[in-house]
Specification:
Elements: H1 2-25, H2 30-37, E1 42-47, H3 51-60, E2 66-72, H4 76-86, E3 91-93, H5 96-100, E4 107-110, H6 117-126, E5 130-133, H7 141-153, E6 159-161, H8 169-179, E7 186-193, H9 227-244, E8 250-256, E9 269-275, E10 281-286, E11 303-309, E12 312-317, E13 326-331, H10 338-351, E14 365-366, H11 380-394, H12 406-420, H13 428-447, E15 451-452
Parallel strand pairs: 1-2, 1-4, 2-3, 4-5, 5-6, 7-10
Antiparallel strand pairs: 7-11, 8-9, 8-15, 9-10, 11-12, 12-13, 13-14
Helix pairs in contact: 1-8, 3-4, 6-7, 7-13, 8-9, 9-13
The structure holds nicotinamide-adenine-dinucleotide.
The site of nicotinamide-adenine-dinucleotide (NAD) has 26 residues, from helix 3.
Length: 470
């Protein structure tokens, strides 16, 4: 018990410092945005108002920092859905070039299938617009080089990628815990995104009539999509890049199409291993036949990451409109001192007992976000409420929710960057590293080999990829 209290006091102090830092870094306080909104809105257009586009419009509707003035989609039904969702009576187009020609459009959202991200983003940048492009930024190696070159020529234009975990307070807090050493030496991350597409098919991944000729099937054909790696892994390999503070050195993996044989040619299950510098690794799995998530006592399905250090572990998953974000922290048994070791040896010898490693007080500790922090400005009642909420959270009675959906924060962050020129958290570098990881992961599975990340330097430049190393 004494040890329990000692560890928890020390770790909580470190974590509290991390929480405060995160709170200070949260972008876009709503109160400030409201004052600015009336005369300082970013006028934007969106290209692609399908499933994700409409979801983003639903969120954009309540963000004062931007105003939708134009929408474009080649599918009239989806275009109308976008118009109905945003409700600002935007101009509508089937040809994105007409939207880009609008002088009063400052920023453009590219929310189309992956295979058209690059041409649309390129043309929007060339038209002088700031761009928010959904992940993955690009589809092919040649597009990596072309977009990097274009952005280098246009450093003042904002390019943000839709990697919303970067905007989550929970993930930011965990990143701070990793950087401050609360988890000790973090060497391994495991991530999974498992779905049961057999019992609960997702409309996004279901084959519609027309096969490859129907763009609505873009996700399930390699000519238009990076498959599970692009749609799911991309989020989680970005988390690993962020937590490790590095890009992988190489990736190896296995992918196959075993169950969903309806004419698609993307894999329906993939397993990947990413090797980072200093022996750090991300192991990854995405399958389509089972949705169980062995984190959070099995209370949430599908996706999450587990971040493992010598002093502790974090289980984390992102929230959405339905589920709150969750982050649970477990502590490792503390390092044994020499005196403890001697005492244990003596006891074992005397009693003839087998020594077992003590797990210590290792139950999950839910992480708390900044809204439960004490600022010193609370009145008596507010302070009592915070104390009660913190206590209930540590007892597991109350689930601490992320104060804002990170999607709202990423959208507000984008408008803020458009106004101030401030580099987005998910900037071109983050987005490009992520897109490269997806391209090379698929190559590793297709070619059945270890693919080095520096191969991207030559890929797509007309020179053959370097021969297999190591
Ligand atoms: N960040 C996330 O969590 C997240 C979640 C879901 C989807 N996404 C991404 O969002 C993007 C869109 O996915 P989705 O699920 O909305 O797909 P979708 O098929 O539902 O919608 C895509 C829309 O783009 C339109 N479109 C295609 N080509 C076009 C063009 N040249 N000009 C104008 N419109 C065009 C289509 O008609 C369709 O309405 C993908 O890149 C996907 O990876 C991100």
């Amino acid at each position: 018990m004494a040890q329990d209290q000692e560890v928890s006091r020390r770790d909580f102090v470190k974590t509290a410092a991390a929480v405060t830092a995160v709170a200070a870094a949260v972008e876009g306080a709503p109160a400030i945005q409201k004052v600015r909104a009336a005369n300082d809105q970013v006028q934007y257009g969106m290209i692609g108002t399908g499933s994700r586009g409409s979801y983003l419009l639903k969120h954009l509707k309540s963000i004062d920092a931007g105003r939708c003035v134009a929408l474009c989609d080649i599918n009239p039904v989806n275009l109308k859905r976008g118009v109905d969702t945003i409700g600002t009576n935007p101009k509508t187009f089937a040809d994105y070039r007409e939207l880009l020609a609008m002088k009063d459009v400052d920023a453009v959202f590219v929310i189309t299938p992956l295979f058209v991200h690059f041409p649309l983003t390129r043309d929007a940048l060339l038209a002088g617009k700031n761009v928010f492009c959904e992940k993955c930024l690009v589809f092919k190696p040649e597009e990596v080089h072309a977009l990097n070159a274009l952005c280098a020529e246009r450093p003042k234009q904002i390019l943000q990628t839709g990697l919303q975990r970067r905007y989550s307070q929970f993930y930011q807090l965990v990143k701070d815990m990793v950087d401050k050493g609360v988890l000790g030496n973090v060497h391994h991350i495991h991530a999974q995104w498992h779905r049961n597409m057999i019992n609960k098919p997702s409309s996004l991944w279901t084959m519609k009539p027309g096969g490859e000729k129907n763009i609505a099937n873009w996700r399930v054909f390699r000519s238009m999509s990076g498959g599970l790696t692009a749609e799911l892994t991309s989020h989680q390999v970005d988390v690993a890049d962020w937590m490790f503070g590095a890009s992988p050195e190489f990736v190896m993996g296995l992918g196959s199409l075993d169950m969903l044989k309806d004419g698609r040619d993307v894999f329906d299950n993939i397993q990947l291993i990413y090797k980072y510098p200093n022996g750090q690794k991300l192991t990854y799995s995405s399958i389509s036949t089972n949705s169980f998530l062995p984190y959070f006592n099995g209370t949430r399905p599908e996706m999450g990451e587990i971040i493992m250090g010598t002093d502790g572990t974090i289980e984390i998953t992102v929230g959405d409109d339905v589920h709150p974000a969750i982050a649970w922290w477990y502590r490792e048994p503390p390092k044994e001192t020499d005196a403890q070791k001697k005492a244990a040896e003596k006891k074992a010898f005397v009693a003839g007992a087998t020594m077992v490693a003590s797990g210590g007080a290792n139950g999950p500790i839910p992480l708390m976000t900044s809204d439960l922090n004490f600022t010193g400005k609370e009145n008596f009642f507010e302070k009592e409420v915070k104390f009660a909420k913190r206590w209930l959270t540590t007892k597991g009675v109350m689930v601490q929710e992320e104060p804002r959906n990170p999607v709202d924060t990423e959208l507000e962050g984008f408008f803020n960057s458009c106004k101030t020129g401030q580099k987005p958290r998910a900037d071109i570098q983050v987005g490009m590293n992520d897109a490269v990881a997806v391209i090379l992961s698929n190559m590793a599975m297709d070619e059945g080999r270890k693919v080095y990340f520096n191969e991207i330097d030559k890929l797509g430049k007309g020179a053959p990829a370097p021969a297999k190393k190591g």
